[in-house]
Amino acid sequence: MPGGLLEPLTRRRLGGAALVLAGLVVASVVLWQILRGDDSSGAEKSPVRLVSVPDLGLAFAHPRSWKTSVGGRVIRLRSPDGSAVMTFASPVRGRHPSQVKAALERALRERLKPATVLRDGAGRLGTRTAASFELSGFGPGRARTRALALVEDTPHRTYAVTLLTPGRPSRKRLLEATEVLASVRLSKPLVRR
Q1: According to the model, what pLDDT value does residue 41 have?
Q2: What is the pTM of this model?
Q3: Which of 11, 84, 100, 158 can bridge 173 by disulfide, Cβ–Cβ 3.0-4.6 Å?
């Protein structure tokens, strides 16, 4: 392959990575300012942490106080008090939003049995419009639990995001979770050679 053809590909890949990084920086600054401004006691808030998984084409920001765990193609976030749990997953390659949404709904209905659908329609995942639904049911210990699910796809992968909260989550946790969802960026996965 002539050397002249590799240069535009490299420039394009670097340009895309720079745009994703710029988006994350802006999202983290906005998230940090909102979280800092929400504290009426004047105590300093923890800064945000940027998470980037190039192999999945997924990036987002979350408060540093939230705990992160990774297992394969699944990333879990847990709020400091454990009241909010968010899961990011990319179970399949390619565009399969209907199948992933149906499987996710079945799994959540089973987990929160008996579950009621509160809403089914469009939602926001970063700057994208995603398929979304919300369920209410009973989680461990028969505690009332709400689940928000978002499913979005790119030509490369399908993504599923789930947020579990108590039946009446705190305003602070909802604001933090909303900002995490707003910071999500999906891009072409990096292919390792």
Answers
A1: 46
A2: 0.73
A3: 84
CA gap 23, 45 in Å, rounded: 22
Residue 163 to residue 150: CA distance in whole angstroms: 9
At 47 the pLDDT is 80
Least confident window among 8-12, 73-77, 90-94, 121-125: 8-12
The rounded distance, in Å, linking the Cα atoms of 117 and 131 is: 14
